[in-house]
UniProtKB/TrEMBL annotation:
One of its GO terms (cellular component) is cytoplasm. It comes from candidate division WOR-3 bacterium. SUPFAM superfamilies: Acyl-CoA N-acyltransferases (Nat). This is [Ribosomal protein bS18]-alanine N-acetyltransferase. Its EC number is 2.3.1.266. Residues 2-144 form the N-acetyltransferase domain. Acetylates the N-terminal alanine of ribosomal protein bS18. Keywords: Acyltransferase, Cytoplasm, Transferase. The gene is rimI.
Length: 146
């Protein structure tokens, strides 16, 4: 059973394990630490039986930036990422954001498909964004308010 809650400092060891296993250029502990305390931020973990199985970091008001999302490899394709993203979109809607955006490697087709399911569309390419020179695809979701 998965539950979603705020990220806390004592989660960082497990968060960093997933981060290092997932990304070639992982975030440092200090990045997560400052985001935990950001007033305009959303920093959440997905937990199963007291183990962190995924996390999401977002911030911003009018434009919300999904800065980081990852799910532990053995927990992918089971709806954890969807639940984290659902919370991020609730956060954006709650503060009347106009849009949500993120960067994704042009080669990361699985993540791009995942984002499209929520309505994100590619808007432009940021050349050489990643440490290995790879381009980032910027994907954006416009939020409509009555
Ligand atoms: C991208 C990522 C966060 C998605 O998280 P996830 O937990 O695997 O996502 P979900 O399980 O919610 O959805 C993934 C797929 O599983 C399917 N799925 C969702 N719930 C499911 C369930 N209960 N059972 C089986 N499949 C399910 C979805 O239909 C989705 O299909 P898609 O491939 O067509 O998008 C995760 O794969 C990940 O950490 N990848 C590596 C890191 C990464 O690329 N991060 C993004 C960098 S920009």
């Amino acid at each position: 059973m998965i539950s979603i809650r705020r990220m806390e400092e004592q989660d960082l060891e497990q968060v960093l394990q997933i981060e290092h296993a997932t990304f070639p250029n992982p975030w440092r502990r200090s990045f997560f630490l400052s985001d935990i305390h950001r007033p305009d931020g959303l920093c959440i973990v997905a937990e199963n039986e007291n183990r962190v199985v995924g996390y999401l970091v977002a911030w911003g008001r009018v434009e919300v930036h999904i800065a980081n999302i990852a799910v532990a490899a053995e927990w992918r394709n089971q709806g954890v990422g969807t639940e984290l993203m659902r919370r991020a979109l609730e956060f954006a809607a709650g503060q009347q954001a106009e849009s949500v955006f993120l960067e994704v490697r042009v080669s990361n087709l699985g993540a791009q498909r995942f984002y499209r399911r929520f309505g994100f569309v590619p808007t432009y390419v940021r050349r050489g964004y990643y440490e290995n020179g790879e381009d980032a695809l910027i994907m954006e979701l416009a939020l409509l308010h009555e």
